[in-house]
Amino acid sequence: MLSWLSAMGHLKHKMRKSLLRFRRLLISQNRHEIYLVIAEYDAEYIDYVTNPNRDQKCESFIQMNEFGPWDISNAKDVEDIASIILAVTLQFSRGKEPHP
Known about the structure:
The longest helix has 19 residues. A 3-stranded antiparallel sheet has the order 1-2-3. About 30% of the residues lie in helices and about 30% in strands. It has one domain. By secondary structure, the protein is an alpha+beta fold. A hairpin with a 2-residue loop joins strand 1 and strand 2.
């Protein structure tokens, strides 16, 4: 997750230090199980991760919420996780953040 957020360094000049919260969805698989991880963070955290010359301590943290597992050998679990992924995809396509 850290390297993913570090890649956003070129966008940090566009972000104001404010109360805005950002989210990232990570879908992971461990053998036959699927997990969703939703990471929440703010612009200060991005600055902390991407700015090695930062003078001050970071008062911000990343919060990671894990959901699952869903078993891919169970048809009901596959239907459930597919519905969740579709809903999140539709929200992102409209420019909205998912609300866990």
